[in-house]
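Record OLC1v1018499C1, 458 aa.
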Amino acid sequence: MIELSGVFFLRLSIFSIGFCFLRRLRKGIRGMALAAVSASKQPPSSSSSNPQATWLGSLLYNANKFEANQYPKRQKTITSDPYIKEDTNHHEDDHPHQSTTTTSVTHIVNDQEAQILQRKEEEMMVMKQPRTSVLTRKSTLRPTQLVVPAPLSCPAEMEIMIGKKYEREEFQLQGKGFAVASKKGKRAVMEDSHGVMLHIDSNPKQAFFVVVDGHGGRAAAEFVAENLGTNIMKEINNIENVAVGSLEEAEHHHIEQAIRRGYLVTDHQFLSQEVNKGGACAASVLVKDGEMYVGNVGDCKVILSRNGKAQCLTQDHRLTRPDERARIENSGGFLECRNGVWRVNGSLAVSRAIGDAYLKQHIISEPHTLSLPLTPDDSDCFLILASDGLWDKVGEQEAVDVVLASSSSRGGGGKKKEDQDEDDSAVEACKELVALSYRRGGVDDVTVMVIHLPNFFS
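=>
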């Protein structure tokens, strides 16, 4: 066993010594080959001095050339002209009798150096290219900056286009003996409106005033404001022509009947239109021959201030009234409470209105009416007509106090000056009442009208 191991190690030693000798011999031969190659490139006189080296070098040179053709290294031609493209298939050995451009230098580089040189060449080519149109070359710049216009500032009183009509979010009107102020709430359309008729039959002591609160759109409110006063006066003229020579009490009764007829006719005219969507509540005052006639449907109110005390001249047509609830139920309707508010068929919160065709079987347009004489003792009395947007947030007596406070802040300066101050105080009082409603959280449309009655009776 020991002899076998000794023989094995001996053979292994001999093999190692032989392998090392062969490696050293190979290196020596390669060195001689390189010397022979260099000698072959020298003039013939220098190469002939060592024919053995020349022969051996030629042999190894041909062997290296064959190996280079089998596994070519990547070549890179770097020239001073960036427009000369790289020829990756050109090898000096393939064309020994041709030389490259005198301005180029050929280098054999590795892959990483080749990539760096290629990027530099591309940059130089881009810099030396002639400038062309942005549309004819591939743009590498940023996209054009998007200019966003600044939002327009909106004034306090902004006019809004509604179809072919304009309306203001806030509106004030000052007339002889009256003033109006209104403001749009959270709805997209201002649904309140108002109407004024002065110098009826050329009589400066006859006038008609109405405040209208629409719902389901603005169409009904506008129609009522434009036509209710005219229809009432037509009915009054018809009755007077028939009742000539009647008693005074009967005449008052006939005028109240004419007011009722005016409301009913206006309702019928609106429903007969092609566009009859929505409805409207209204509160009106007619001053005629020293008498005041009041009518209303819905929840608009008329408040009389006499000696600084508030007196309501209208009746709310809401479903909290037992008589109105019974009338609707007897007509086949039903009542539903939504968010604490009773509604007809779960929809409308008032029991009387003009319009509302889809509920006409239950919602009537017959108004509550009242007549009241005016005397010289009522020299300081005035009226407040307003939609429910005010009365939901401001009490009746509180509204009277606001108007009185505005009137007391102005005074003196003669009769003409007093009249002007009176008109100015009226519009200021209307604006203050509208602002008070919104300060208390109101979001509904609000319309307020203040009328100084002494201007319309002797």
